[in-house]
Backbone:
């Protein structure tokens, strides 16, 4: 491998930027933004250079620095460089770079710009760490760092109680998943005695039954991490709330990169999931499918532009997890890549709209924005069509591969196929609804009259992201992943294409019929309870409120009572009370009168003498 | 009748008890002080008597020692009492309860 230093530089540049901002330029917004943007753009350039020099598969694959050795556990701090990580490197620095630049325009009026960019750079560092990690422990550390920076950025406007609550919710829900992940890592270490990905893979190729009966459990525990980070059912509740953060953060963290980390991790350790006696993949497939369907249903009845996109993200993440579950990691990564392009673009477009509408996020108060914001409109439209899977846009290719993969005889299932097509239909429906309501039709509030196109610093990143969103299918990304993760030739591509195109056409037709020039949503009347349930996110938050949170509150109350009365009351105050009471008793003997002391002294001396000689 | 060791020791014990009673029962610091001296001297008497009857001079050495120390002690003690009197206008022991919490 040539130029081994480059990956290290790419990884640590954002950290340096974050440190520099927090230490030196916290009061200078221009310099802070410059440092942060400079670090990630330089990272992007260096990544391109590195790929140009080494091609996609550098010889040696890993560059390692020994980190710590505890007994039999040896942990390296190593970077793994293969098509998977290099492509992710490009996504994180490329899409991330566009979002960084966009942020400069979007956040310009905010007082905390420097803090914002420090958080963004810290996030970039952590995400790059996940992408480049060559062992489980390093991955887990950066995994947690990503959670932390997500917490910092969701709660960026921490003076808003909803933002503070959302950041807490995101962090705690993630921790819940990470707990399982950690157990899985321990199980893997216990079995293989190493945490290095390639060593584990070598061991597993030599002896596929190494995990024995624990194979399913190990796979599912590791999947727990992805459930939390990629917001899969039943831990999906944090992602929509995470939209409380600034919109570029939603684009970067909660659409393009961090939530994709779960899927990336599953693909990275796919050899651990795809074992002969493991049933983990079936569970993963169904969880992904359920998440995709649930989120798509919810998305059809949301009115907040960012929440629609958030549920759409959930749904697409469900797709990716479904693809992993049907033993097709290459399509999952492919969809992750194209999704990163067009979903980041959608969020940035939504941010541009929100910016123009002075922080109005309700699509029923927009309308007619098509003429007011042409650049935003056209890029948003292209991204929506890509998300719907209209050929020849990027989303078509990746989604089609996933739908085809659900039909493979050994891992797929007809029910999963129907589910995937349903989701494709719903995706087209809710995206068309969003575009039709927000950009077409009559203006639905006065805010529209004052809306105008965003400045160049925001529209240029939109245009830059529109290019890969449209052309993503022609760069050979699929072949790149397929080369590393194994091609999946299901042989059902024709059926998949027909089904998904049918879904797109039907979805579009429904949406046009219902929402062309609509002043309000006609669905609640027609569907009644189902629409109501979708609008209320199928009552998951209420359910958790009533069960998990209630239980947690009761447990907390008991713990508080125990702490207050048993620990602080009986033990602490009891000990000090008993000491004091005893002391008070003893103090009665201390009269301060010399003669009393003298008398007691003599009396005691007499008693001692009596016992020593007198008897 | 010959005067035996017992006689000396009994006298010494009586003197000691008288001194002790003085220390415990009297109120005036000066009197307590004198009672204290009495106790010291009762010990001296016992030392001398035992030294004489056991043909051992160690006791007499001890007595000289005690007399010397007692002289020094009297000097310091009286000075303290005078200083105390100047400060508190009293030499009564029940007024001196500063040690009490």
Residues:
């Amino acid at each position: 491998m040539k130029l081994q230093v480059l990956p290290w530089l790419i990884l640590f540049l954002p950290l340096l930027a974050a440190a520099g901002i927090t230490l030196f330029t916290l009061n200078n917004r221009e310099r802070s933004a410059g440092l942060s943007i400079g670090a990630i753009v330089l990272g992007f350039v260096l990544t391109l250079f590195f790929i140009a020099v080494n091609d996609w598969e550098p010889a040696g694959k890993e560059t390692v620095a020994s980190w710590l050795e505890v007994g039999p556990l040896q942990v390296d701090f190593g970077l793994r460089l293969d098509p998977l990580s290099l492509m992710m490197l490009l996504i994180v620095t490329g899409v991330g770079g566009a979002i960084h630049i966009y942020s400069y325009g979007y956040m310009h009026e905010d007082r905390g710009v420097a803090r914002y960019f420090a958080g963004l750079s810290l996030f970039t560092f952590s995400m790059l760490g996940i992408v480049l990690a060559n062992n489980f422990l390093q991955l887990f550390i950066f995994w947690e760092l990503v959670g932390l920076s997500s917490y910092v950025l969701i709660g960026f406007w921490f003076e808003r109680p909803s933002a503070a609550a959302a950041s807490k919710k995101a962090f705690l829900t993630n921790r819940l998943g990470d707990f399982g992940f950690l157990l899985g890592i321990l199980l893997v270490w216990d079995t293989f005695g190493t945490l290095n990905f390639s060593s584990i893979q070598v061991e597993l190729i030599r002896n596929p039954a190494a995990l024995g009966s624990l194979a399913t459990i190990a796979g599912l525990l590791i999947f727990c991490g992805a459930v939390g980070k990629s917001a899969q059912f039943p831990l999906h509740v944090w992602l929509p709330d995470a939209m409380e953060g600034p919109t570029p953060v939603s684009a970067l963290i909660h659409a393009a990169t961090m939530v994709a980390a779960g899927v990336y991790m599953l693909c990275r350790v796919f050899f651990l999931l795809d074992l002969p006696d493991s049933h983990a993949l079936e569970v993963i497939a169904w969880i992904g499918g359920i998440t995709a369907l649930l989120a798509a249903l919810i998305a059809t009845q949301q009115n907040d532009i960012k929440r629609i996109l958030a549920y759409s993200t959930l749904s697409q993440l469900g797709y990716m997890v479904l693809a992993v579950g049907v033993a097709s990691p290459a399509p999952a990564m492919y969809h992750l890549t194209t999704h990163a392009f067009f979903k980041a673009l959608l969020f940035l477009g939504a941010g541009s709209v929100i910016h123009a509408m002075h922080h109005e996020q309700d699509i029923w108060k927009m309308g007619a924005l098509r003429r007011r914001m042409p650049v935003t409109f056209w890029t948003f439209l292209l991204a929506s069509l890509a998300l719907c899977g209209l050929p020849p846009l990027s989303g078509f290719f990746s989604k089609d591969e996933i739908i085809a993969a659900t039909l493979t005889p050994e891992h797929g299932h007809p029910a999963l196929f129907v589910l995937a097509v349903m989701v494709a239909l719903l995706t087209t429906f809710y995206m068309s609804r969003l575009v039709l309501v927000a950009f077409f039709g009559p203006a639905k509030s006065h805010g529209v009259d004052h809306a105008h196109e965003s400045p160049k610093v925001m529209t240029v990143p939109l245009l830059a992201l529109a290019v890969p969103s449209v052309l993503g299918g022609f760069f050979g990304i699929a072949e790149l992943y397929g080369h590393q993760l194994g091609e999946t030739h299901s042989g059902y591509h024709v059926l998949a294409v027909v089904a998904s195109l049918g879904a797109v056409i039907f979805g579009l037709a429904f949406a046009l019929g219902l929402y062309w020039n609509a002043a309000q949503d006609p669905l609640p009347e027609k569907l009644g309870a189902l629409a109501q349930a979708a609008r209320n996110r199928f009552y998951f938050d209420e359910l958790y409120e009533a069960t998990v949170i209630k239980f947690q509150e009761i447990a907390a109350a008991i713990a508080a009572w125990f702490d207050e009365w048993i620990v602080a009351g009986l033990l602490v105050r009891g000990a000090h009370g008993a000491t004091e009471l005893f002391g008070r008793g003893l103090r009665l003997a201390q009269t301060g009168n010399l003669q009393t002391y003298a008398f007691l002294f003599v009396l005691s001396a007499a008693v001692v003498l009596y016992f020593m000689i007198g008897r | 009748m010959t005067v035996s060791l017992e006689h000396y020791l009994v006298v010494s014990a009586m003197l000691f008890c008288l001194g002790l009673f003085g220390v415990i029962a009297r109120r005036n610091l000066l009197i307590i002080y004198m009672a204290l001296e009495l106790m010291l001297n009762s010990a001296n008497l016992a030392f001398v008597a035992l030294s004489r009857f056991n043909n051992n001079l160690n006791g007499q050495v001890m007595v000289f020692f005690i007399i010397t120390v007692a002289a020094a002690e009297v000097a310091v003690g009286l000075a303290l009492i005078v200083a105390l009197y100047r400060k508190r206008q009293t030499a009564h022991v029940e007024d001196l309860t500063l040690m009490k919490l």
Remarks:
- The mean pLDDT of chain B is 90.
- The CA atoms of residues 51 and 59 of chain B lie 5 Å apart.
